[in-house]
Amino acid sequence: MTVSRAPLLGAAILTAIVVAAGSAQAGDPKAGKKVFKQCAACHTLDEGKNRVGPSLHGVIGRPSGSAPKFRYSKAMKALDLTWTEDNIAKYLADPKGFIPKNKMAFNGLSDPQDIADVIAYIAQESSQ
Ligand code: HEC
């Protein structure tokens, strides 16, 4: 279920989040490991191991919707995007707003630092 927000306030908050998340903020992989617990119900960082969500091993720099054997939503398949850190940050700040009709049942992360940290953790785990 989507919770409706006051549109103006929502847009203002979203802009603030996107601006903050988009700036080169140093992520801490150790803190990100804790944040990733929220993702781990659906995602692994093991290559090729999909769960409810696709494996996030090596997702940074990967084209959207390209994890082998994962059944993406039409919305995600239709998207022509590279998962740069910036795009991942925007997606995590507002999954349904950034990609309408995608099927990730996750409300997003409200703290830009959490977003930077979890991306740093994904990067670290993907390089191992
Ligand atoms: C309730 C399950 C769930 C949770 C929790 C969740 N995700 Fe997802 N995620 C998905 C699903 C399902 C998709 C595929 C969406 C689609 O096909 O529309 C997805 C897609 C993604 C993608 C795009 C991957 C690709 O191959 O294109 C990224 C990046 C991502 N999630 C990151 C995260 C991160 C980081 C977290 C935690 C902060 C998280 N997700 C939490 C289910 C989840």
- CATH homologous superfamily descriptor: Cytochrome c-like domain
Number of domains: 1
CATH architecture: Orthogonal Bundle
Biggest beta-sheet profile: none
Strand content: under 5%
CATH fold-level topology = Cytochrome Bc1 Complex, Chain D, domain 2
One letter per element, helices H and strands E, the order comes to: HHHHHH
Proportion in helices: 40-55%
* Number of helical segments with 4 or more residues: 6
From the alpha-carbon coordinates, what is the Rg to the nearest angstrom?
A: 14 Å
Q: Termini distance?
A: 37 Å
Give the mean pLDDT: 89
Point out poorly predicted stretches.
Answer: none
Structure classification:
mainly alpha
What ions, cofactors and ligands are bound? heme C
How would you describe the shape?
globular
Number of strands: 0
Query: What is the CATH top level name?
Result: Mainly Alpha
| Oligomer category | single chain
List keywords for this structure.
128 residues, mainly alpha, Cytochrome Bc1 Complex, Chain D, domain 2
Describe the SSE topology:
Layout: H1 7-22, H2 29-36, H3 74-78, H4 85-93, H5 95-98, H6 112-126
Bound molecules: heme C (HEC).
